[in-house]
Amino acid sequence: MYQKAITINNVPVDLVILDNFLNKNQKIEAIKYIVDHCNVGLRDAKNFVDNYDPENIEQDSNLNFPKKEGVQIKTLKNTIEVRYCDDQGIETLVNPDHILWKNVKRIMHDSLKIKEYEDAYYKENSITNQNVNPITVKMIILESLLSS
Question: Which InterPro entries match (predicted)?
Fold first, then answer.
């Protein structure tokens, strides 16, 4: 038996998983599945789930919704990693000095964890910068100029 296929943003949707959620009246889980699996916004995922009817799938189809931006914060041992994912799905490791940090701040503007990370980052870098002897830096620059 041939089963119709749906893809969202070129990502195949597992219709068995989606149907299972909906058959168990787990609409929120179905929406979360679409958001997480297909990298779409909450509104688009909800609209898709609201309008999804397995009986009326006429042909294989690919639906395109705008992808969502996102920020991932991971704590690994004693370090924190912050990753920004743009609306094209490109993920970048960022810190407060990175050009994309403004996007992290825009998305996570009230996040205490981001504020703590930013404070710790600047504190650590100011300590590191204080430990650098300016004379040593000048000597290294001078040596590199003389050797070229």
Answer: Ribosomal_bL12_C/ClpS-like (IPR014719)
